Amino acid sequence: MPAHSKHTEIAIIGGGIVGLTLAYMAARKGLGVTVFERNSQAVGASIRNFGMIWPIGQAAGKGLRRALRSRELWREASDTCGFWRIENGSLHLAYHEDEWHILQEFQEGASDKRFQVSLCSPDEVLQTYQGINPRGLKGALRSETEMIVDPREVPQKLASWLQHQANCQVLFDHPVQHMEDGRLATNGEEWMFDQAFICCGSDFETLYPQVFLGSALIKSKLQMLRTFPQAGGWRVGASLCAGLTLAHYASFTDCPSLPALKARIQEESPQFFDWGIHVMVSQNGKGELVLGDSHEYAKSFDPFIREEVNTYIMDYLRTFFQGPDMRIMERWYGVYAKNPHGIDFIKYVSPKNTLVTGVGGAGMTHSFGLAEELIQKL
């Protein structure tokens, strides 16, 4: 080893949620960790989302088990690192007969699959939750397992906690330009490591581009919006979604009424499938409502927000929800990596170097559970 080289047991390339949860789990195991983040703070998909930990959307089996374990670890990390969370569950609202049939079918088949769900009548929904559109409401599916964190706060709190641990550090403004097995270069420095996790998100071009060229990974662009804080401590009471979401998440795939729902949406409102729109509402600790989203799939995207898509999102939102103050404070887009054939993309590119990405739109839901699985293998 050259005299000027530095050393860390675990090198994490990328300070987004996947990289930081890997660092957290490694540090909790007593390992020395260094996180290398190219920017001065997390700026990617990890902060451009709802902040939802969303087990209800995961297919029964590995995805659901990982999501539920992640939820336990999110609780622990929230208590340890001091970031806000709320365990408010979720509500899938039905306004059409096919939607209501799907919710009934799902509830009937969920008892042996670790979902914690129950059906609610329209009166139960309207008496318990705020802002719900009563017109045409058939009922809802209540799930107890969903949690909200603030995705803009979490990376800061995790990084701060890591910085205060012995033998751990987070190096911002440290892009990694080159990697070999057990060795990396950043800002003119050479680092040696025992194991590295490359958590590059949707950056397929900087490190190991040949691996990504040979993979099935795709990129997804999403659009989202945020309202001003709701006055007077007003709270929705749960994270909300409606019929479009039933056509989006893997957990509902086996419901017999799903093809009829998809056919109706395609006939009545094809723009929702054209832009990959399904509409959800979360509320953070400041009282802001986070709204979205859409899904465009391509190798690269233009840098513009399509107001047409935002209009579709807001028009559909009004069919099931209206908060007291719906003024929009911010609009943005994000890009994430998705593996069409699985819930993640893990590639051991050399004995000491592992690529970890492709968690799709479930990065918040799966990150802690995935991190625990990978660190346990060390």
Descriptive account of the structure:
The protein is of the alpha+beta class and 378 residues long. Helix content is 30%, strand content 27%. It contains 11 helices and 20 strands. The chain has helices spanning 17-28, 62-81, 97-109, 122-128, 154-163, 209-213, 243-246, 258-268, 270-274, 307-317, 363-376, and strands at residues 6-13, 33-36, 52-53, 85-86, 90-94, 117-120, 139-143, 147-149, 168-171, 176-180, 183-186, 189-198, 218-227, 239-241, 280-283, 289-292, 296-298, 328-338, 345-350, 353-357. The strands form 3 sheets. Strands 5, 6, 7, 13, 14, 15, 16, 17 and 18 form a 9-stranded mixed beta sheet that branches. β11 and β12 form a beta hairpin. α1 runs parallel beside α11. The chain is globular, with a radius of gyration of 21 Å. The two termini are 23 Å apart. The model has no long low-confidence stretch (mean pLDDT 96).
Blueprint of the fold:
Blueprint lengths: L5 E8 L3 H12 L4 E4 L15 E2 L8 H20 L3 E2 L3 E5 L2 H13 L7 E4 L1 H7 L10 E5 L3 E3 L4 H10 L4 E4 L4 E5 L2 E4 L2 E10 L10 H5 L4 E10 L11 E3 L1 H4 L11 H11 L1 H5 L5 E4 L5 E4 L3 E3 L8 H11 L10 E11 L6 E6 L2 E5 L5 H14 L2
Parallel strand pairs: 1-2, 1-12, 2-9, 5-14, 12-20
Antiparallel strand pairs: 3-8, 4-8, 5-7, 6-7, 10-11, 11-12, 13-16, 13-17, 13-18, 14-15, 15-16, 19-20
Total beta strand runs: 20
Structural class call reads alpha+beta
Unreliable runs, pLDDT <50, ≥5 residues?
none
The major sheet is characterized as:
9 strands, mixed
Cα-atom radius of gyration: 21 Å
* Tally of helical segments: 11
